[in-house]
């Protein structure tokens, strides 16, 4: 999904060998990326950031709350589905495990530590640091690590999607799971990842047909109208997938029913969203390689603004203020995905960490072979 260790998932056309990837020219690597998926990642991360910015403002506007509910119904499912699609090649090899450490584990530890420190410094309220209780946005890194490690299992079983749905349904009626590693979200969002694992490129081509793009217009219009109707009638906590049915104050049997209903709705909206994603290279296509930066860094900025009380300003709770916040956050997260920002924060988001890993035997053999060949040629010439 993203390039090298800076990404949550790798590009589908990127080389499997990381060393070869680093030695290729930037132009060649850019040609190997799929513009459609980079465009989808950028558009999704903008929706993620805008949704987070709407959260402290939505209470004053039913229309904004409806838009918030609509976005939350599909933006993370879309992100997770694409992540699953690009996890198909995970086989537990040393190279793949190394990328898990540098691209997921290290950023998780860094930002799981940074968020509580930010609250302590800006808000003045001491906050404990716990690596077992994901804070704010870091739950996705924790979830992706668990999903990726279980990929070989999902590729082994005969009916992976029904099994994943069954697990999600059971999680929705099990309040005793607790908050460790945010397992409720891990399990309830699991079907989208497993579905992505089983998708093929032709499935994405199906949703990109002109007829689907046209059909997506009334679907989204109806969905927005339904969300407006549902605002005072539905608990938006269902969309976060972090609580059981009992914790949301409803009978246990509602949990499995809502899981199936939300899975179907989210999948339909995700297909409609993907149908509108351009397949050609756009001005923002290159930003798709830096969406992990935008994801992690925008959270720090929004939390700092929230702790300072900036979202409490009356002007931001009016229509023009809400529009200004939406545009401003979209521009801000776009800047966070650019190359200069990635170069500055690369040491924490995609560290190389060559010092921490043993050299692969096959890689060492490949390095020795040219040297040995060169010495043999020198002997022959001598």
Keywords:
382 residues; mainly alpha; globular; disordered N terminus
Q: How would you describe what is shown here?
A:
This protein has 382 residues and is mostly helical. It is 65% helix and 0% strand. It contains 17 helices and no strands. It has helices spanning 18-23, 26-32, 35-54, 62-85, 94-123, 139-149, 151-156, 160-171, 183-188, 190-197, 201-207, 210-230, 254-275, 291-308, 319-336, 339-349, 361-381.
Residue-averaged pLDDT:
85
What is the number of helical segments per DSSP (H or I, 4+ residues)? 17
Spatial shape: globular
- Radius of gyration equals 22 Å
Global structural class = mainly alpha
Compute the number of strand runs.
0
The share of residues in extended strands comes to under 5%
Secondary structure elements and their pairing?
Layout: H1 18-23, H2 26-32, H3 35-54, H4 62-85, H5 94-123, H6 139-149, H7 151-156, H8 160-171, H9 183-188, H10 190-197, H11 201-207, H12 210-230, H13 254-275, H14 291-308, H15 319-336, H16 339-349, H17 361-381
Give a concise summary.
With 382 residues, this protein is mostly helical. Helices cover 65% and strands 0% of the residues.
